[in-house]
Amino acid sequence: MGRKGDGGRTAGLARWLAGIVLAASLLLPALACAKGPVLVVGDSLSAEHNIPAGTGWVSLLQRKIARELPGGPAVVNASISGETSAGALTRLPGLLQKHRPAVLVIELGGNDALRGLTPAQLRANLEKMVVLGRQSGARVLLLGIDVPPNYGPAYRERLRRTYAELARAQDAALVPFFLEGVALQPGLMQADGLHPTAAAQPRLLDNVWPALKPLL
């Protein structure tokens, strides 16, 4: 009798485990589909300023993800030409609530520097954005910027440190200089000396991808 009862319990346990495995197999695809997008919040460097639509690095990123990571996340470009860290900080809560991103890419600071904002003020705004992103469940990538040499070496060094120190303090991913290999290069910058050409966009994506891919 003891053996017969044990066999019944074993069969019942097997059926219970099979049900759990089946339920998990049905749930996993739904979880995979629930993955949020990559949300890019930036300025004219990411907003396809004065270049053909669809040629900017963010558009190229969407195509790269579709090609290399089938089933990977969508990309939402919330960048605006002329955007500042203060303006983006005001918009960010609504963007996070609307899109529920898995990854938040922050590309800001150029317009703040052009307007004379101190690195400390810039850091305060960026830090609030990073914290909001992480509180929403997103992983955060910071894209660092630089300014022309006429700003002076002291200001430029403080600006570089702003991104590096913030990334360390908030455990965020970092591209130290977003325009690496593009800034000041003939043919890769527009006549204003501030905005990359369409030809430079693949290089910008190459700068971002190694830091972004592990977050996807």
Characteristics of this structure?
51% helix, alpha/beta, 216 residues, 5 strands
How would you describe this structure to a colleague?
This protein has 216 residues and is an alpha/beta fold. It is 51% helix and 10% strand. The protein has seven helices and five strands. It has helices spanning 2-33, 57-68, 85-99, 110-114, 119-135, 153-170, 201-212; strands spanning 38-42, 75-77, 103-107, 139-143, 173-175. A five-stranded parallel beta sheet has the order 2-1-3-4-5, sandwiched between helices. Strand 1, helix 2 (57-68) and strand 2 form a beta-alpha-beta unit. Helix 5 (119-135) runs parallel beside helix 6. The longest helix is centred in the N-terminal third of the chain and has 32 residues, at 2-33. The radius of gyration is 23 Å and the shape is globular. The protein starts with a helix and ends with a helix. Mean pLDDT is 88; it is low at 18-34.
Brief description of this entry?
The protein is an alpha/beta fold and 216 residues long. The chain has helices at residues 2-33, 57-68, 85-99, 110-114, 119-135, 153-170, 201-212, and strands at residues 38-42, 75-77, 103-107, 139-143, 173-175. Helix content is 51%, strand content 10%.
Map the helices and strands.
Layout: H1 2-33, E1 38-42, H2 57-68, E2 75-77, H3 85-99, E3 103-107, H4 110-114, H5 119-135, E4 139-143, H6 153-170, E5 173-175, H7 201-212
Parallel strand pairs: 1-2, 1-3, 3-4, 4-5
Helix pairs in contact: 2-7, 3-5, 5-6
